[in-house]
Task: inverse folding
């Protein structure tokens, strides 16, 4: 008798998950870029809490961890599409993973929307992979404007992480714009995971760099900043959205005060939309502190997908994918999102500065 | 390269090399006794840092207590790894021991990922800030961006001086321990011939365990010093430093403790010099260390100060 | 059992497996059938490493390097010139590679040959070293290969890697090559060459005294192992549809994974290697449940990320301590063995 009750219970409880729409979330929850993945997940989860339904059904989020790894990026994408049968995917986070996992999405005709992948190859020639953030060609321009116009540098040392697509691409776009602006740029190289940059910093200083630009991830940005200051480099240090996590300040400390970086969003920027106000309010209520860029992006991706499902009016993957590409003027947290026919979102770049151990909004560069 | 940059790079290399030297000692000690490349050495280094991190953040211990406990923890960990993983296969062919060492290394790394999560943490606030200050020789005072700063001059981190001092102390201590105490004599005996030594009534397992504990304690000290200089803690932080320390140990002569120190210093200096002279080749930096390793192994496997290994039939 | 019977049984077995694969393609969804393809690829990796580590007894940690060489070679050969134009953003690919495109089969063979060449270059200086040092030297070479791949933008596209590789690896290619690999290595193993290798493994000095040229034999085994590693690399790249020089993809982690496979299956056994490869592929996916949130009676239990690697490495250490022979030990699957099972049953 007890067994029967148990079985019935199990059946009932599992049925309760039957009539839900599954959306996959493939994020790096472990591995080198887990910091970004976890923040994005926070945003997604928060959005899910606030808007748990669409078309009269519950949305179920299936979280898969890609371990910051390309192979896993592909495997989890397949698993999400074939095993879990999701209708759309939020993911992935860093460009190289999104490019890899995106190939699977393309093949199967499932919409994949990335919160944060900025490399152009992510959406190039693809119909199903899109993003809600700006892409690096624009971020590169913005960073160059920041360095050469706003900060008045003329000879910038770019620290390139040869192991990351994102860094290499970003650095190149920076350099191209720098040349147009008449500035001089030279490269210093490192690999992800390096800890000692004293040789590169000394070299950059000996070449009279008057600013450093670090288009990489926060671990190395913080260490380079520390070592630069230690070796007597007091000029500006600039970076990209890889620095937009609290760990940059935690690890960098005093050395990163005065660091400027380009990013997607900052809670300090004027809240343009209802969703933006709602987001900041809900986040501060729940976590007691101001939200970060990546959390906002995760929030937005969820909303965009939900909106697409609503507009498509069905759970058909093809319809949803088309609806995603037709997103126009969607009032999101990080700006007004319109996704163009290439899958990119045209958005502004926010410039944020680190002051006294906090992120402080500085200005915005518009496309 | 202008002389000032050259000198600064040399100093940078010395700073990096001093850390390699300390870790290399532990490697060489274990290899000298057991002929085992303890791949897990770098990971014990990593664990000690995590111990210190959590002792300060969770248990709110003052940094000096935390450091001592973390080092003790590393010693215990090293001892246990030997007891659990290496002792049962002492009689097995050396290949098995090597494979097991690799396994233990990955085990410790994945354990750290699961328990501590893979995100890098900041070590900056764990130890007093003055340790990461620089000693500046020369240079002049200028005003930049509204502050008075020293421009130019040669800079050397305080923590590197401390590392060199500790390495020197360790060298002296180990020399006394190995050549002037009974246990040290037992260690020397075990490194020559294990079966005969045990026939002489020496508890070989205990001696080996003590060797591991000592070597691991040094790795722990090295780890904490490393984390003060490069204030970031993450599960795979021990892998490359461990590898480079191993190269240093081989370079200096595996089995020779002064050799390990020498090897570490030279490796650090050459690594930085290479990047300084060929900035475009900075991406090849780690390959360079492996390259040195292969050349040494091919040309003079006994390293700078080691003795050749004769295989008896 | 007579040779004729053995050959017939083997042919029957091959046909049965082929039939099974065909069924799997028909009825399983692409997620599962890709895992089966992967098992074939892992099998080749494991068997080629077994030839070196297991049968010859030289402990190589450099397998990932040769797999990488094979992967890059075949990828560079199968991509169309237009794709290469698009993918190589930092530096343009050198001539003549930027204008060739050849069929998958030949690309794979060339990949194997290039990898074998690399194996020769690595083995020649390294095999003079004794056990531990050899292992570290091969590890060093493997990392050097990876780091060069990372930096040579005009050849490998550096960190960007090669993307959009055509999805050539089907179940048939991977298991077909597995069959070839097993056939080659098995016949090598049972030949006088193989016996010499085993003699060297057991007692190097005695073997030398018997007149066996240790260096030459070990080098040849190493080169063969490298050849098949290259083949597996080519298949792997076209399964993944992307290849990049990061540690997780073609670095130490890959070598460690292959090591797990052969230790699990039995160091020294070809059958063991295949079993190990299959087990690894299967467990890798099955154990995923430990890492994702689980729905148990409506409660969500958050999975712990990284558990899979922990399980694998613990398993590895436990097997090395308590069960170092693995599943098959050094024994192989033979028809005689199967027959004796039946005979025992009859009594």
Result:
């Amino acid at each position: 008798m007890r067994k029967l009750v148990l079985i019935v219970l199990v059946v009932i409880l599992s049925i309760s998950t039957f009539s839900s729409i599954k959306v996959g979330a493939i994020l790096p929850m472990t591995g080198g870029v887990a910091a970004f993945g976890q923040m994005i997940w926070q945003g997604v989860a928060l959005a899910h809490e606030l808007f748990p339904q669409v078309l009269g059904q519950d949305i179920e989020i299936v979280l898969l961890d890609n371990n910051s790894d390309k192979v896993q990026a592909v495997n989890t994408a397949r698993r999400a599409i074939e095993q879990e049968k999701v209708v759309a995917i939020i993911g992935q986070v860093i460009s190289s993973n999104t490019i890899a996992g995106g190939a699977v999405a393309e093949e199967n005709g499932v919409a994949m929307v990335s919160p944060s992948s900025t490399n152009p190859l992510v959406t190039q020639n693809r119909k199903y992979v899109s993003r809600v953030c700006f892409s690096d060609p624009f971020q590169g321009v913005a960073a160059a404007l920041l360095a050469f116009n706003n900060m008045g540098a003329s000879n910038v040392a770019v620290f390139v992480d040869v192991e990351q697509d994102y860094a290499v691409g970003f650095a190149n776009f920076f350099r191209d714009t720098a040349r147009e602006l008449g500035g001089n740029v030279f490269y210093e190289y490192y690999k992800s995971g390096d800890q000692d940059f004293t040789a590169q910093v000394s070299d950059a200083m000996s070449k009279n760099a008057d600013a450093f630009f670090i288009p990489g991830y926060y671990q190395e940005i913080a260490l380079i900043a520390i070592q630069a200051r230690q070796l007597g480099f007091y000029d500006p240090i600039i970076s990209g959205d890889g620095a937009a996590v609290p760990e940059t300040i935690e690890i960098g400390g005093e050395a990163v005060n005065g660091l400027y970086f380009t990013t997607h969003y900052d809670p300090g920027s004027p809240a343009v939309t209802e969703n933006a106000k709602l987001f900041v309010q809900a986040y501060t209520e729940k976590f007691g502190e101001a939200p970060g860029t990546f959390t906002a992006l995760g929030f937005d991706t969820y909303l965009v997908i939900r909106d697409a499902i609503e507009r498509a009016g069905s759970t058909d993957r093809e319809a949803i994918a088309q609806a995603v590409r037709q997103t126009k003027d969607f009032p999101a947290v990080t700006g007004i999102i319109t996704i163009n026919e290439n899958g990119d979102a045209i958005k502004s770049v926010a410039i944020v500065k680190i002051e006294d151990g906090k992120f402080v909004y500085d200005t915005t560069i518009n496309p | 390269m202008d002389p000032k940059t050259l000198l600064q790079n040399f100093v940078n290399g010395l700073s990096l090399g001093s850390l390699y030297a300390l870790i290399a000692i532990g490697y060489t000690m274990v290899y000298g006794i057991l002929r085992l490349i303890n791949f897990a050495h770098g990971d014990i280094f990593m664990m000690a840092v995590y111990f210190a991190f959590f002792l300060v953040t969770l248990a709110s211990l003052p940094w000096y207590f935390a450091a001592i406990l973390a080092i003790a923890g590393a010693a215990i960990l090293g001892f246990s790894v030997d007891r659990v993983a290496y002792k049962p296969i002492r009689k097995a062919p050396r290949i098995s021991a090597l494979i097991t060492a690799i396994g233990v290394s990955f085990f410790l790394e994945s354990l750290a990922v699961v328990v501590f999560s893979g995100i890098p943490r900041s070590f900056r606030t764990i130890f007093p800030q003055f340790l990461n200050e620089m000693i500046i020789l020369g240079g002049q005072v200028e005003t930049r961006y509204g502050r008075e700063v020293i421009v130019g001059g040669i800079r050397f981190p305080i923590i590197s001086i401390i590392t060199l001092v500790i390495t020197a102390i360790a060298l002296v201590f180990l020399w006394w321990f190995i050549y002037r105490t009974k246990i040290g004599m037992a260690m020397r005996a075990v490194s020559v011939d294990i079966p005969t030594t045990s026939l002489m009534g020496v508890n070989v397992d205990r001696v080996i365990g003590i060797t591991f504990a000592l070597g691991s304690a040094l790795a722990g000290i090295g780890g904490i010093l490393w984390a003060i200089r490069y204030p970031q803690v993450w599960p795979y932080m021990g892998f490359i430093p461990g590898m480079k320390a191993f190269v240093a140990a081989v370079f200096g002569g595996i089995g020779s403790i002064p050799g390990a120190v020498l090897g570490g210093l030279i490796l650090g200096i050459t690594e930085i010099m290479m990047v300084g002279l060929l900035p475009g080749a900075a991406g090849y930096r780690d390959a360079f260390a492996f390259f040195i390793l292969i050349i040494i192994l091919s040309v003079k496997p006994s390293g700078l100060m080691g003795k050749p290994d004769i295989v008896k039939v | 059992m007579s040779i004729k019977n053995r050959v017939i049984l083997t042919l029957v077995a091959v046909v049965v497996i082929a039939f099974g694969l065909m069924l799997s393609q028909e009825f399983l969804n692409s997620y599962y059938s890709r895992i089966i393809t992967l098992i074939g690829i892992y099998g080749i990796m494991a068997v080629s490493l077994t030839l070196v580590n297991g049968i010859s007894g030289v402990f190589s940690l450099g397998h990932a390097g040769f797999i990488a060489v094979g992967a890059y070679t075949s990828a560079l050969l199968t991509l169309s010139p237009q794709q290469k134009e698009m993918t190589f953003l930092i530096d343009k690919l050198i001539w003549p590679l930027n204008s060739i495109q050849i069929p998958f089969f030949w690309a794979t063979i060339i990949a194997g040959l290039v990898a074998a060449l690399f194996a020769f270059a690595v083995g020649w200086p390294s095999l003079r070293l004794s056990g531990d040092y050899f292992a570290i030297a091969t590890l060093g070479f493997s990392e050097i290969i990876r780091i060069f791949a990372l930096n040579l933008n005009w050849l490998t596209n550096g960190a960007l890697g090669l993307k959009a590789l055509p999805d050539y690896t089907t179940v048939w290619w991977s298991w077909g090559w597995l069959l070839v690999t097993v056939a080659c290595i098995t016949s090598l193993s049972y030949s006088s060459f193989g016996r010499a290798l085993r003699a060297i493994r057991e007692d190097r000095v005695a073997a030398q005294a018997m007149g066996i040229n240790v260096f030459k034999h070990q080098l040849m085994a190493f080169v063969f192992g490298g050849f098949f590693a290259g083949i597996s690399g080519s298949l792997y790249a076209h399964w993944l549809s992307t290849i990049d020089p990061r540690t997780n993809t073609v670095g130490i982690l890959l070598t460690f994974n292959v090591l797990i496979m052969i230790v699990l299956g039995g160091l020294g056994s070809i059958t063991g290697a295949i079993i190990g490869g299959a087990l690894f592929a299967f467990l890798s996916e099955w154990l995923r449940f430990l890492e994702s949130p689980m729905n148990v009676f409506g409660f969500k239990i958050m999975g712990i990320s990284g558990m899979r690697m922990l399980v694998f490495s613990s398993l590895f250490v436990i097997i090395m301590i308590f069960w170092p022979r693995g599943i098959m030990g050094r024994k192989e699957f033979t028809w005689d063995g199967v027959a004796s099972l039946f005979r025992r049953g009859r009594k």
User: Anything to note?
Assistant: The longest strand of chain A covers residues 57-65. The CA atoms of residues 21 and 220 of chain A lie 40 Å apart. Chain A touches chain C at residues 9-10, 13-14, 16-17, 29-30, 34, 62-65, 67, 69-71, 74-75, 78-79, 82-83, 96, 99-100, 103, 121, 124, 161-165, 167-169, 172, 191 (CB under 8 Å). The domain at 2-134+272-347 of chain A is CATH 3.40.50.2300 (Rossmann fold).
